[in-house]
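Intended use. Records like the one below are meant for learning the mapping from a protein sequence to its folded structure. Do not use them to infer anything beyond what is encoded.
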Amino acid sequence: MAVNVKSTPVRTSATHRSRRSRSRSAERIRSFTLFGAPGLLVYACFVLAPIAISFGYSLTDHNPFNPPTEFVGLRNYRMLFTDEEFLTSLRVTTILTVIVVVVPNVAGLGIAVLLDRRGWFYNAMRTVFFTPMVLSSVVVSIVWTRMLDDEGLVNQALRAIGVDRPPGWLSDPGLALYSIASILSWQMLGFCVVVYLAGLQGVPRELTEAAEIDGAGPIRRFRSVTWPLLAPALTINTVVLLISAFKIFDHIQVITHGGPGTGTTATIAYNVLQTGLVANRQGYASAMAIVMLLIIAVAAAVTLRVLNRREVNL
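Structure written out for the chain above:
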């Protein structure tokens, strides 16, 4: 009888803990249903579902104007790696991405250092540099197409200073890709400037002042104090630029239509739209899009891992 009396409170306490645990679990489920489920549903409908549908199409020879659709398995993917047009677009996209990742990062850091001061002039200059970011890509493309035309403002200025034969910025196959890379770098420059400025304003002044007292010059202070603390800003800029450049389409469509010549500036995204909507080979275009998605995902994940490791080491 004594044993039963002693064990009853223990069992009652365990029962209360179990009930509280179930109550908390139910509360978490209700909270997720109320706040998390709508966002997850939107994500599933507008991101996961289109990817799944595209992958399904990539395993077929789907063409809406040439039914019936047949299952072809991985044939589309095998064709991609022997398709000279796709391999050329992969090379073009890689070159464009490397330029767009490097140039705005380097130039944006330099400009941010120069603008990291107080005053109305510096505030106005920040607005000037960020303005291209808020403009439509189509508007930017049209403006630069007019400026870089053979008779455009840039070539007129070159003739005015004595250049007899200005280059064909958009008509020369050797220059067109680099001209587009320059336009995209110019548009993305403001984003890098703003991110680096935010990072610079987060650098503790005590550290730079201590380094100055220790006799470190401006370059040494920047290299040893400021630059390590800008690691998060570098990570953000690099990943955003990488993703933005690799999926570029609108600038190519408006400025060069993939030319001059055959595929000189045609990116993977441009070829996806051309293959799917113009040639109506939607199964093959879907395979191309899935490969592009995988390349972007892997490249972004590797870049993020490497740069995050650098942040931790610092």
